[in-house]
Design a protein that fits this description.
The chain is mainly alpha-helical. The protein contains 2 helices and no strands. The longest helix is centred in the middle third of the chain and has 24 residues, at 15-38.
């Protein structure tokens, strides 16, 4: 009965999706290092923002509206 279950059945990301994300993050690290070396501050800031998005949790709990609750 459980022989055909995969990680996707439990809400986890596939190994390929995780590998793709890992490669993306590593390429961002490389680009950031090059931009730092070249002194390109705007590009560094842009890439750091992109890195923050890449490493953020999938489900972010919003704190918006907490003060509106009774």
């Amino acid at each position: 009965m459980f022989a055909n279950l995969t990680a996707a059945d439990f809400g986890r990301r596939s190994k390929q999706a995780l590998a793709t994300k890992r490669k993306w993050v590593h390429s961002l690290f490389d680009e950031i290092q090059v931009a730092i070396h070249n002194g390109d501050r705007p590009k560094v800031e842009h890439l750091l923002a992109e890195l923050a998005v890449a490493t953020a949790p999938e489900r972010v709990i919003s704190t918006r509206g907490r003060s509106e609750r009774p």
